[in-house]
Amino acid sequence: MSIAVGEPVPWFRAATPSQPEFSFDTVAGRYVLMVFLPRDADRRGEVLAALSENLATFDNRRLTALAVVRDAATAVGVKDLKALHWILDLDDRISRKFDVAADDGVDRPAWLLLDPTLRLLRRWNVGEEQALFAALPKLPPPERHAGPIIPAPVLIAPRIFEPAFCQQLIDLLESDGGGAFSGVMRDRGQRTVVVMDDLKKRRDVLITDPDLQTAIRRRLKARLFPMINRAFGFKVTRIERYLVSCYAAEDGGVFHAHRDNTTQGTAHRKFAGSINLNDSFEGGDLRFPEFGPATYRPPVGGSCVFGCGLLHEATPVTSGRRYAFLPFFYDEAGQSLLDAYRERIAETAVEAN
Questions:
Q1: What is the pLDDT of residue 1?
Q2: 85-96 per-position pLDDT tens digit
Q3: Is there a single domain that holds both residue 125 and residue 66?
Q4: Which among 224, 222, 219, 216 has a CA at the least distance from the CA of 157?
Q5: φ and ψ at 222, to 5 degrees?
Q6: H or E segment to which residue 135 belongs
Q7: Measuring CA to CA, how many Å separate 114 from each of 145, 273, 309?
Q8: Which domain holds residue 315?
Q9: pTM for the model
Q10: Which of 124, 180, 260, 274 has the fewest Cβ atoms within 10 angstroms?
């Protein structure tokens, strides 16, 4: 069945001319115009001409475009631009998800306009380009796509760590040489691995001392977990990683827009916590692009808690260093997911041997 207005569209990963693996979900936070190029050469030429004539419409902040290429000849001649990505779909894998290609053999090329949360806002048939491009300038700013500005569904909880305890965690990182640069999670076949990527520039230290872990866990259970249950109706029973991090201006500290639970090895994560340990820095705030340009900064010792499925970023630190404690929270259902993943990769390793 076709996707109806108001419904979220399917997410996917695919190659573009410049990226071997483009994650569709990361374009949220602006309007997205998708076009599935027709298989008919004449109709395809008309669509490509319309894109070329209206490139100035796409600025990547307010509106970006994704052109889904479904024939090998076109794929050879295109290149990604800042606000126009060419999604390669030569086997119709993506087109089938969007009901453009179907088992009945009928080709249904179309233009789809998505809102900043990647839900269908409007559809035009190929051939309706004049009406389409006349409508785009009339769209409200992305943060007002629903009318009023909607704040991100996050919890700000102050007074989780006391100042002296915050300083203790900062000292731990600094005594370890300032921490080591860490990577991001990516799926490679059946396994989730860590890769170094320009998406993130951050130094981390894992806390391994059992007594310090216990002190942290005691504070979280007494001061933060009841608030998570009150705000989100979720009972935390598990903590993933006791991690102290540093985003430093001298490193270009940043973590660009991403989600925390989109790989096989991270699907168990339900909520992320971000506890600021200091405030002597500029930049470094949290932003949730699907909910506009507003930024969020908990006070020293306070936490910002949010669902791991939300697109979010830690904005660049432009001065000083931001120190933070960054755990993930989940429950027994999440633990079952994690156990199943670990069992799968163990079986894969045995088969490989």
A1: 58
A2: 999 999 999 999
A3: yes
A4: 224
A5: -85, -35
A6: helix 129-135
A7: 10, 29, 18
A8: 155-340
A9: 0.92
A10: 180
195 and 270 part of one domain: yes
| Residues in Cβ contact with 221 at an 8 Å cutoff, skipping those fewer than 6 apart | none
Distance CA 333, CA 6 (A): 29
Q: What is the pLDDT of residues 133-167, one digit of tens each?
A: 999 999 999 999 999 999 999 999 999 999 999 99
Whether residue 1 lies inside any domain: the answer is: no
Q: What are 144's two structure tokens?
A: 């007002």
pLDDT for res 140 = 97
Flag residues of the chain having pLDDT under 50. Answer: none
Q: Which helix (H) or strand (E) holds 337?
A: helix 332-352
d(CA 166, CA 299): 12
- Angle value at C-alpha 5, between 42 and 313, nearest 5 degrees: 95
Which helix or strand (DSSP H or E) is residue 84 part of? strand 84-88
Hey, which residues does 28 pair with through a beta bridge?
Answer: none
Are 113 and 181 contained in the same domain?
no
Residues 248 and 285 in one domain: yes
pLDDT at 347: 74
If asked whether residues 117 and 264 sit together in one domain, one would say no
> What pLDDT does residue 105 have?
74
* Structural domain total, the chain: 2
Instruction: Please tell me whether residues 268 and 299 are part of one structural domain.
Output: yes
